[in-house]
Hints:
Blueprint: H1 13-17, H2 20-29, E1 32-35, E2 40-43, H3 46-53, E3 59-60, H4 67-70, H5 88-97, H6 102-126, E4 128-130, H7 131-148, H8 155-166, H9 177-199, H10 207-213, E5 215-216, E6 219-220, H11 223-238, H12 240-254, H13 256-264, H14 269-279, E7 286-290, E8 294-296, E9 299-301, E10 306-309, H15 311-314, H16 349-367, E11 371-372, E12 378-381, E13 386-390, E14 392-394
Parallel strand pairs: 2-10
Antiparallel strand pairs: 1-2, 3-7, 4-14, 5-6, 7-10, 8-9, 11-14, 12-13
The structure holds protoporphyrin IX containing FE.
The site of protoporphyrin IX containing FE has 25 residues, from helix 7, helix 11, helix 12 and helix 16.
Amino acid sequence: MSSTPIDYDPFAEAVREDPHPYYRRLRADAPAYYLEGYDAWALSQFQDIWNASSDTEHYTNTGGAASAQLLTKDQPVDPMINTIDPPEHTLLRTAIRRNFLPRNVAHLEGEARKLCSRLLEEAKERGGVDIVREFGSRLSVTIACLAIGLPVEDGPLLTKLVQGFFSHDPDTGGMTAEGMQYLGELNTYCADKIAERRRNPNDSGDPLDTIATMHYEGAPYASAAAATHISMLVVGGSETFPKVLASTMVRMAEYRDQRNEIIADPSLIPDAFDEALRFDMPTQYLGRTVKKDHTLHGQTIRAGQTIIFLYPSANRDENEFANPDTFDIHRKPPRLLSFGAGVHQCLGRHIARMEGKVSLETLLPALGDYEIDFDNAVRLRTEFVQGYGSLPIHFTPL
Ligand code: HEM
């Protein structure tokens, strides 16, 4: 216990530089921490976030889930699967869920493998690859298009729009007006695709078809709402994975013994990917709006306030993980929060894990002792997402 008061603000420069010392203090001394400027509470312990993620009695998603919706409130709360509560959420999630189940993901795995081999060949010709821009993003956006029912040729455009949306102000780390314009363009693109599919429904059962044709409370979704539902799937499906792959490659370079173990026994890859995600979760938090007063760690949490879940803190909680700051691909934790929990648990988690497995199976045996070009890497230091926006590596093809 330290006597200095904790001064945690997700936008502060020092927090964006390295949040973990703050998270450690919060877990120990203020597990329910009041964020003065935002009328919000930050939860940092694993068990609290686990419980709150499933608690639809006290919390609602209708105030949004992202930083710019909950804290700065400069992103509108459009209808998206993660901004609606049951029963509408249950109906929508049930309708599109089958596209994201392991048996469907197995169909996507073949496409992922072909693409990864092609990207590796291109990388070998150049003797290098940007893990985020030239590998992870291309893989995740292509698979997202296939999973949602969008044309794969639109992948580069969608990557540009999603990355533009996430471009943040270097001074505050927060959302920019330009970023919001990109989100508007993404919504317009999705509205066009919904309109096309409404003119030509194809009974494919893909999420684009399901959302274009489904009814809620006796009426079809308004086209703007249908479009923003699709936008969420595009963002969720393409944005996070490349950053996770980049940090995994950084850890694989750092912990060579563990990397060599994986190359000798690729069945370790799924656990290694989960461990890398536990160790370096890029999304700093998502959250909810409080709908009913209650008490947590002696604090009164009031209806109308915001609550944020500090996932990277939960992932390093010493009450959940032994030696949490040690990178260990053999730890096999019984539960993780990297994909959230409860009714809003990540719908794309089987896809993300498949992409991680196929990428690492392709890259690790082929790259040998690759070198990371940190001088030309771009590190994101925003209040919401941290990790690499670009991670060039060099290697001598084996
Ligand atoms: C490693 C990559 C990924 C990570 C770390 C990740 C993480 C998360 C987390 C933490 C949530 C929970 C949100 C909450 O409880 O409020 C979430 C929700 C969601 N994710 Fe992912 N995600 C990843 C990849 C994907 C992919 C590939 C897709 C789609 C293809 C996807 C689609 C979604 C959707 C649709 C939701 C909202 C589910 C709902 O509200 O019912 N995610 N994700």
